[in-house]
Amino acid sequence: MKALRNFFEKTQPYVQKGAKYHWLHSTHDSFFTLAFSPKHTSKSGSHIHDNIDLKRTMSFVILALVPALLVGMYNVGYQHYHAIGEFAATSFFNVFLYGLIKVLPVIIVSYVVGLGIEFMFAQMRGHEVNEGFLVSGMLIPLVMPINTPLWMVAIATAFAVVFGKEVFGGTGMNIWNPALIARAFLFFAYPAQMSGDKVWIALKDGDKVIDGFTGATPMADAAAGNIDFNVFDAFIGLIPGSIGETSTLAILLGAIFLIVTGIGNWKIMLSTFIGGAVMGIILNLSAGVEGLSPAAAAYFSMPFWHHFVLGGFAFGAIFMATDPVSAAQTDTGKWIYGFLIGITAILFRVVNPAYPEGMMLAILLMNTFAPLIDHYVVQGNINRRLKRAKVAA
Amino acid sequence: MSKTIKLRKGLNIRLKGKAEPVLETAPPAELYALKPTDFPGLTPRLSVKQGQVVKAGEPLFYDKYNPEVLYGSPVGGTVFLINRGERRKILEVVVKADAATGAADFGSADPLSLDEAAVREKLLSSGLWPLIRRRPYGVVARPAEKPRDIFISGFDSAPLAPDYEFVLKGQEKQFQTGVNALKKLTSGKVYLGLPAGSGNHLLGQTKNVEINYFDGPHPAGNVGIQLHQISPLNKGEVVWTVNPQDVVFIGRLFETGKVDFTKIIALTGSEVLRPRYLKTTLGTRLCPILEGNLKTDGNQRIISGNPLSGKKIICDNFLGFYDSQVTVIPEGDDYEFMGWANPGIDKFSASKTFLSSLFPKKEYELTANLHGGERAFVMTGQYEKFLPMDILPVYLLKSIIVNDLDKMEQLGIYEVVEEDLALCEFACTSKIMVQDILRKGINIMMKELG
User: Fold this and answer.
1) What residues of A are in contact with residue B413 (Cβ under 8 Å)?
2) Contacts of A126 in chain B (CB under 8 A)
3) Which of B256, B277, B312 represents a domain boundary (last residue)?
4) What pLDDT was estimated at residue A213?
5) Using the beta-carbon criterion (under 8 Å), do A171 and B375 form an inter-chain contact?
6) Shortest CB distance from A392 goes to which of B13, B234, B380?
7) Which SS3 state, helix, strand or coil, does residue B239 take?
8) How far is CA B272 from CA A115, A202, B72, B276, B424, in A?
9) Are B351 and A261 in contact (CB < 8 Å)?
10) Is B368–A53 a contact, with Cβ atoms under 8 angstroms apart?
């Protein structure tokens, strides 16, 4: 440990401004501060500071993602071996190992590309490297279908970091959730590769699929009026879908962790679910309306709470909507913001079959509106103050 | 009518080194000083020359823009040194105490029998006027204005703060006289805030005031929070605030005709060997008090005031004008291996990400370390938990950062001073310098709108 510190301290002069390796400054700084909390003390203002910092905050979010990641890895193997009809003959460990081998490269690509760009921008701007991407870099793989080619992951990550974040000034300044920008980028730039039935199951060219296997997600099926998924499987996470979004159970574990530690905002999570339930119930009630196609009517009448275990709803509500930077920032705003995400997600999902995954678009849409929601909450505060002055006068 | 106001927002930071209820007399310091830098926005003009003899209460300097506001010498003696900084800015006017010189006599009087002008005149001429501060802005009151109300917080809830029950014992009479004098200065009320649930409170019998009780964590003891809860400050209004020991100073003036700046301070902090109360005089040099009382290992940070909003000083400096507390904590200027990943049994945090949150009673040693790098605003909803006011602190700070005067006014800059937002700065994940930003905003407001 001492040797490591000596190394960092000795190399520090070489990365200072004007020194030969200045271009490595932010890299040096980020690894140094990662290994050793800096010795900066307060210069003015409060003399004591809370022990929490952004590194700890972000690493707690990553910890919360671990259950979803692990179940997601297992599910990749599970879906693969089911598709080729060999699940019964494969050990639990091998199923997981298959998923691990498939998922790991996606994570590595996301981090290498994203962090590389982050380091570059930090150096150019003379900032410290922001920790925000530690979470985005994990979220991006988790919202990808497993068969997304790695080069597409790389492009999407680069797009998300540069246009989703750095053009606005880096972590804390962005308007949209960067991980969702990556997903949306792929969704719109490569629609052929990113939809259909092939992307959800990891298969090689030579793999023979058993008879009757489609590989479609239950949500895509449901949109076609074909609702036959097992709710319990969907809750546990053994359905086709993006890597990390399938297991509602694992996501809830992460949610509990986030709420207990206070890192994630429970108001947004809860109001998103309330919004989803309200819209689901509205759809249930209007399932009998005339003019609906039989497929739509079937989807309309699906019990509203089944929506929570399908697709990215739970994952989005817990990990994406709660991103503090792109969400509404006022307490009242958070309730409204979450509620509207729930409403629009289910609405998009059911009413517009062209977008089976409504959650992504719902969150991005509400990210866009979050400043507006906040504006009215702030205006409310201002008006209260003005009114108070008038009453007094 | 008195009422109990319950506050939920806030945080008591449990620090090691609270003062034991033991009162000792501090060794007399030779040197005492007034620091113009203790008064934000003040442009001082000297009234004395080096080597001149001054009695306690005679002015050392005055306000260039309000020349009737005099800043009286805390002790009698000779002007020892006028300490100047960059561009000859006056930093300290140091007086060498001499018991023989004594205090100037301004004539005793019962404030109840005086009219408002006479009370004002007495406070102004004796140099006690700067004890009164005004909101907006938390600066010295202006003699020409008439405050809507006057607020006194009878307790301090800041970390390691002195217990005024202990400090004011035996001075209730002077306190009452001080309150009587203040009552003359406003056509409104004098409000006194006391902690709820302390049974028979020392100041509970004070007359001529409206007493309100406050129940809740820090910053419940901040006078700004109390006045917001009782009767919030609106645009165009002015209220005055006075610290409880300063009310006693005023009381003594009216009772004896002389100024007597003897006060009790709490010597606190985890680096102090025996945290306790000391009887000393306003503006005292701190070396005589601190020498031999501190632990000897490692760097230390000496703070005049509490660790949240006090001023960083060195031993050779002087006690701040409004301070009743000196705190010494470890500087904490060393690296910590993987500090962000530490489970943190012994690390206090307002967040629930450290194991320390499982021990709600334990006391902690906090250093002056920032515990992390500075970042942009990322986490939200953090500040609001520590500000029991109907104010959106982040939006207020952002309006200051972008220099938007209208928004600052609309979002309530008139109602807050640094100490009210100090907890936000403590808890901030992004280590944003909240108090600096706020003072910058207040300075802009004063400059632009007066």
Assistant:
1) none
2) none
3) B256
4) 72
5) yes
6) B234
7) strand
8) 45, 65, 31, 9, 26
9) yes
10) no
Please list every residue in chain B whose beta carbon sits closer than 8 Å to the beta carbon of residue A382: 410-411
Per the CB < 8 A criterion, the answer to whether B199 and B205 are in contact is: no
Number of domains in chain B: 2
- Asked, for residue A60, whether it belongs to a domain, the answer is yes
Q: What is the pLDDT of residues A35-46, one digit of tens each?
A: 888 888 888 889
Residue A42 maps to a domain: no
Contacts of A132 in chain B (CB under 8 A): 378
Sign of CA dihedral A7, A11, A13, A15: negative
B123 vs B185: CA distance, rounded Å = 11
Is the model's pTM score more than 0.90? Answer: yes
Quickly state the pLDDT bin for B198 (edges 50, 70, 90). Answer: low
- Does the residue B225 lie in any domain? yes
Is residue B63 helix, strand or coil? strand
Answer whether residue A20 is part of any domain: no
Total domains in the fold of chain A: 1
Q: How far is A311 from chain B (nearest CA, A)?
A: 27
- Residues sharing a CB contact under 8 Å with residue B413, sequence separation 6 or more, in sequence order: B136, B396, B400, B438, B441, B442, B445
> Would you say residue B72 has pLDDT above 70?
yes
**ipTM at complex level:** 0.91
Q: Which of B239, B256, B273 lies at the terminal end of a domain, its last residue?
A: B256
Among A389, A252, A368, CA closest to A313 = A252
A49 contacts B369? CB cut-off 8 A = yes
With CB atoms and an 8 Å threshold, state whether B312 touches A386.
no
d(CA B249, CA B242): 11
Residue of B nearest to A393 (CA): B234
Summarize pLDDT for B333-390 with one digit per residue, the tens.
888 887 777 788 888 888 888 888 888 888 899 999 988 888 888 888 899 999 999 9
Three-state SS for B347? coil
- Our CA angle for B25, B31, B33, nearest 5°, is 105
Interface touch B234/A389, C-beta < 8 Å: yes
Half-sphere exposure of A221 (CA within 13 A, CB side): 16
Q: Decide: helix, strand or coil at residue B4.
A: strand
- Domain-located, residue B323: no
Contact between B372 and A59 using a beta-carbon 8 Å cutoff: no
Among B234, B235, B372, whose Cβ lies nearest the Cβ of A54? B372
Angle at B76 between CA B72 and CA B77, to 5 degrees: 115
> CA–CA separation, A139 vs A155, rounded Å?
15
Instruction: Write down how long chain A is.
Output: 393
Domain range for A94 is 54-378
Candidate from A44, A51, A324 with C-beta closest to B354: A51
Q: Which amino acid does the sequence have at A101?
A: I
C-alpha–C-alpha distance, residues B245 and B278, integer Å: 14
Single-letter code of the amino acid located at A138:
M
Task: Please tell me the distance in Å from B272's CA to the nearest CA on chain A.
Answer: 16
Give the residue numbers spanning the domain of B156. Answer: 4-256
In chain B, which among 152-171 make CB contacts under 8 A with chain A?
Answer: 159
Tell me, yes or no, whether A6 lies in a domain: no
Q: Is the pLDDT of residue A393 over 70?
A: no
Contacts of residue B443 in chain A, CB cutoff 8 Å? none
Of A372, A373, A330, nearest in space to B391 by CA = A330
Q: Is the minimum CB–CB distance between B400 and chain A shorter than 8 Å? A: no
